[in-house]
Design a protein that fits this description.
Blueprint: E1 4-8, E2 11-16, E3 20-23, E4 35-36, E5 39-47, E6 53-56, E7 60-61, E8 64-72, E9 78-82, E10 94-102, E11 111-115, H1 124-127, E12 135-137, E13 140-142, E14 146-150, E15 156-158, E16 161-163, E17 169-171, E18 177-178, E19 186-190, E20 193-195, H2 200-203, E21 204-206
Parallel strand pairs: 2-5, 3-6, 4-7, 5-8, 6-9, 8-10, 9-11, 10-12, 10-13, 11-14, 12-15, 13-16, 14-17, 15-19, 16-20, 17-21, 18-19
Antiparallel strand pairs: 1-2
């Protein structure tokens, strides 16, 4: 945690002035095994700097993120980010009651959940190397340029609230579709709530 820590009512508050607030050491070294069975709970993350990432979970499997609040105050950031590690991670993680908010700006530039490698990549294979089989339950995402972007497969969103985002859900895998129950290459979206100027076109966007 490269951040300044305080606490309030038993909740830890972590703020940064640059970089990533929470990540696993040697995230890009795929020769090191991923961590498993970690629990992160009852923390408020506040990302002040531009291009910040609150949580980078590229090297985590079978882990839980519970009762978190993520506040993005800088531009062009990502609240929760990961891309696939060549078949090793990030898989089977759960995000339960995680609230993400972006400071009000005329044009939002930060992303909420970003399950994607490189959004500017020209090769679809590189673009879709993304976390798989992760679960999001509840929580609210607001004020993002894209609340949930997923170029992977097998991830599930259940009962989450999306408000005042330019785009709520962006599915970028050519093979991904919404389906319940889901199987290989399906993304499951169930019981989500959308509000705040969204239209049918911006609730779910499919990018090939």
């Amino acid at each position: 945690f490269p951040s300044h820590d305080t606490s309030s009512n038993g909740v830890t508050i972590k703020r940064n002035t640059s970089g990533t607030l929470l990540q696993v050491e040697d995230n890009d070294n795929i020769t090191k095994p991923a961590l498993s069975r970690c629990v992160v709970e009852n923390i408020l993350f506040e990302a002040v700097a531009d291009t910040s990432i609150c949580i980078d979970f590229r090297k985590l499997n079978y882990s839980k993120f519970i009762n978190l609040a993520l506040v993005m105050r800088g531009a062009n950031g990502k609240a929760i980010y990961a891309h696939g590690q060549d078949g090793f991670s990030a898989y089977y993680n759960s995000f339960i009651n995680v609230d993400i908010s972006v400071a009000a700006t005329p044009t939002p530039t930060s992303m909420g959940y970003a399950f994607i490698n490189n959004p500017d990549a020209l090769d679809i294979g590189e673009k879709r190397r993304s976390p798989n089989a992760n679960l999001i339950i509840g929580g609210r995402v607001s004020g993002c340029i894209a609340a949930y972007t997923d170029y992977g497969a097998g991830n599930r969103i259940i009962g989450s609230t999306f408000e005042s985002n330019l785009k709520d859900i962006v599915l970028g895998n050519a093979d991904t579709n919404m389906y319940n129950p889901g199987t290989t290459n399906h993304t499951v979206i169930l019981g989500t709530y959308h509000e705040g100027g969204t239209t049918t076109d911006t609730v779910v966007t499919i990018e090939q």
